[in-house]
Amino acid sequence: MIPQKTRIVFLRRMRFAAAMPRMAWLDGHLNLAREVRDPRFTKVIRYGPATYTHSFRAHDASFFDTKFAAYVRESYIRGRQEHERT
User: Fold this and answer.
1) Parallel, antiparallel, or unpaired: how do β-strands 52-58 and 26-32 relate?
2) What would the pLDDT profile of 23-74 be if each residue is shown by its tens digit?
3) Cα separation of 26 and 19, whole Å?
């Protein structure tokens, strides 16, 4: 974890997630090896053949359910670059 002035970055071998706290919500993004179509992601940007950055905005704790936790686990694996070993 790397705390910065405006955000917190999470990394393993590479950055896999970031969080930017705001007064009334939490902005963030997850880097995944695939594009996920889920309405909770406000924007998806493709960087190269195997990196998709999924932006989100969470207004309350109910946003962070088991489905979102699975995306975080997948992003963590992406950060460990395990997707390239399989």
Assistant:
1) antiparallel
2) 999 999 999 999 999 999 999 999 988 899 999 999 999 999 999 999 999 9
3) 7
- 3-state SS, residue 57: strand
Domain-located, residue 40: yes
Reading the block at residue 74, the tokens are 């997948």
Site of tokens 């992003």: 75
Number of folded domains that form the chain: 1
**Residue range of the domain that includes 58:** 28-86
Residue 7, in any domain of the structure: no
The pLDDT score that the predictor gives to residue 2 is 75
* pLDDT at residue 84 in the model: 60
Lookup result for tokens 């090896």: 33
Which residue type, as a one-letter code, is found at position 21? P
- How many CB atoms neighbour CB 31 within 10 A? 23
Residue 58 in any domain: the answer is yes
Nearest to 62 by CA among 26, 37, 35, 34: 26
